[in-house]
């Protein structure tokens, strides 16, 4: 059985796992990131790989390759972390450094959302002639499109759903970027402003919603409508067959999907309603980045 190591790199943690070609996650480990400087951050990536090898009782010679998901802009062909706003890497030759350290040749590097999207696509049963969209709602908002079995990248910046302007009710129907009115930090800020409580967290907002607190229900309804507006742009432009949602906001609050679908249906015409039945929350949850990165080692997908 072929096995690879998938690595999901973030500003707060680095997750690594042993992944089979079919997408089974056999072993997983996690270490805290150290973004204080580029070398300490790299050392943490090495640590995550070594820990998962130790946990699995495998050696690097047993591994088909490394798959690495990195936030921000990535030079995929050369394995360079070009720019990340939450990491100390600028044009950092990540693939070469890992190749030299572990003496391994096959390394696949890509943006972390693309890695997660690949795992979701493989697990969704989407046909190669269908259009698949992965949307992540967490600290930020982004999306990835897979069309005819390949990533749609445009000129290199496709899928930045969080940058799409939507009409914000709380801002007198001004255009605001979706990320600023629907991502986790935005939800938290809305609640703090409305309730005048500086200690409120995003999870408290959803907890208050379930308890029926009217001020917080209003915020979640507003967020659902904002996300629906962003999704309507996707619905109109590419008319996807399936949409899968990941990210902590969606995964930890799956009820939000039904609210979003109710709002989206209002914007859509009947010919667009088909996608409502093909929208779901990730079943891989926080492991999709690791699984996708590992599976990409076995793929020639670009």
UniProtKB/TrEMBL annotation:
Superkingdom of origin organism: Bacteria
SUPFAM superfamilies: Actin-like ATPase domain
Pfam family, one: ROK
Family per record: Belongs to the ROK (NagC/XylR) family.
Protein name, entry field: ROK family protein
Source organism (scientific name): Fredinandcohnia quinoae
Lineage: Bacteria, Bacillati, Bacillota, Bacilli, Bacillales
């Amino acid at each position: 059985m072929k096995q690879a190591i998938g690595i999901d790199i973030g500003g707060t943690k680095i997750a690594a796992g042993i992944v089979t070609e079919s997408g089974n996650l056999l072993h997983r480990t996690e270490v805290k990131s150290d973004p204080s400087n580029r070398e300490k951050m790299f050392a943490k990536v090495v640590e995550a790989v070594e820990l998962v090898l130790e946990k699995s009782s495998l050696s690097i010679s047993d591994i088909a390759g490394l798959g690495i998901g990195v936030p921000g802009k990535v030079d995929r062909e050369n394995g360079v972390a070009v720019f990340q706003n939450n990491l100390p890497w600028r044009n950092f030759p990540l693939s070469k450094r890992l190749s030299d350290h572990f003496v391994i040749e096959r390394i696949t590097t890509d943006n972390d959302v693309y890695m997660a999207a690949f795992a979701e696509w493989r697990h969704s049963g989407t046909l190669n002639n269908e259009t698949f969209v992965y949307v992540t709602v967490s600290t930020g908002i982004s999306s990835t499109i897979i069309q005819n079995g390949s990533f749609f990248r445009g000129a290199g910046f496709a899928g930045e759903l969080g940058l799409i302007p939507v009409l914000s009710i709380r801002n007198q129907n001004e255009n605001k970027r979706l990320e600023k009115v629907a991502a986790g930090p935005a939800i938290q800020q809305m609640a703090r402003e409305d309730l005048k409580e500086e200690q409120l967290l995003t999870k408290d907002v959803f907890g208050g919603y379930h308890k029926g607190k009217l001020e917080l229900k209003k915020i979640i309804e507003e967020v659902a409508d904002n996300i629906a507006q962003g999704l309507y742009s996707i619905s109109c432009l590419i008319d996807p067959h399936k949409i899968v949602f990941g990210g902590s906001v969606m995964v930890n609050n799956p009820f939000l999907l039904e609210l979003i679908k109710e709002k989206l249906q209002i914007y859509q015409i009947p010919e667009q309603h088909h996608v409502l039945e093909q929208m779901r929350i990730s079943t891989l949850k926080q492991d999709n980045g690791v699984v996708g990165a590992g599976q990409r080692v076995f793929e020639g997908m670009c």
